[in-house]
Design goal:
By secondary structure, the protein is mainly alpha-helical. It is built from 7 helices and no strands. It has one domain: Heme Oxygenase, Chain A, CATH 1.20.910. 68% of the residues lie in helices and 0% in strands. Helix 1 runs parallel beside helix 7.
Length: 191
C-alpha cells in the first residue's frame, strides 16, 4: 500500500516537470497580444485533440461520472473560431494514449483546468475575452474549480492502488508535459 493516493503520487512525481511547462508558457506571454493568445489557443487545440478520446472513453466514464462532458476540445475550437483563427497543422506525430498512461494525460488535462483560474483572469483583464467569446475553454466548471477538482481526484484515487498502474499513469503525465513543451516551442517558434 502506497503512502500516497493516486493523485498525490502523480503530483509528487511530476511537479518539477509541471513547473518547467508553466515557466515555458509564461515566457511566451500568451495574454499580452491577440496574436499570442491565438497561438496559445492553437497549442491548446492540439493538446485537447489528443485527450478528447480519453474523456469520451466508455470504460472511464463508468468510473468517473460525466467525464465526457468535461472534454474541452470543442470549446477550444469555438474560441479559435471566435477569433477568426484556425487550428494549426503541425508536422508532429500525435500520440494516442491508452490504458493506464491515458490516466496520466487525463490528470494533466484536468489539472490544467484548475490552474486556468489565473489564465482566465488574465485573458479577461488583458484581452477582454470571456466564457461567451474567445475563452470558453478556460471558464470554470459550473460547480467551481476547487469543488470539481476534489471530486475528480476522489474518483481518480479510487481507480487503482496498483504500483504498475501508477507508474504507467506517471509515464503518461510526463509524456503529456514533454509533448506540451514541444508544441509550445513549435507554435511560438522558440528555438
Amino acid at each position: 500500500m502506497s503512502e500516497y493516493t493516486f493523485a498525490e503520487y502523480l503530483k509528487t512525481n511530476s511537479h518539477a516537470t509541471h513547473d518547467t511547462v508553466d515557466n515555458l508558457v509564461s515566457s511566451c506571454k500568451p495574454f499580452d497580444t491577440v496574436e499570442n493568445y491565438t497561438k496559445f489557443l492553437q497549442l491548446q487545440a492540439v493538446f485537447h485533440k489528443i485527450v478528447d478520446p480519453i474523456y469520451k472513453d466508455a470504460e472511464l466514464n463508468k468510473h468517473i461520472p460525466n467525464l465526457a462532458s468535461l472534454a474541452r476540445h470543442d470549446a477550444v475550437l469555438k474560441d479559435l473560431s471566435d477569433l477568426n483563427a484556425e487550428p494549426v497543422d503541425l508536422d508532429v506525430a500525435l500520440p494516442n494514449p491508452d490504458g493506464s498512461e491515458a490516466l496520466g494525460w487525463l490528470y494533466c488535462a484536468e489539472g490544467s483546468n484548475l490552474g486556468a483560474a489565473f489564465l482566465f483572469k488574465d485573458v479577461q483583464n488583458k484581452l477582454n475575452f470571456d466564457a461567451e467569446h474567445g475563452a470558453s475553454h478556460l471558464a470554470p466548471h459550473a460547480d467551481g474549480r476547487g469543488k470539481h477538482w476534489r471530486e475528480f481526484i476522489s474518483y481518480l484515487n479510487q481507480l487503482s492502488n496498483n504500483q504498475e498502474v501508477r507508474e504507467e499513469a506517471l509515464r503518461g503525465a510526463l509524456n503529456a508535459f514533454h509533448l506540451y513543451k514541444i508544441l509550445v516551442r513549435k507554435i511560438f517558434a522558440i528555438a
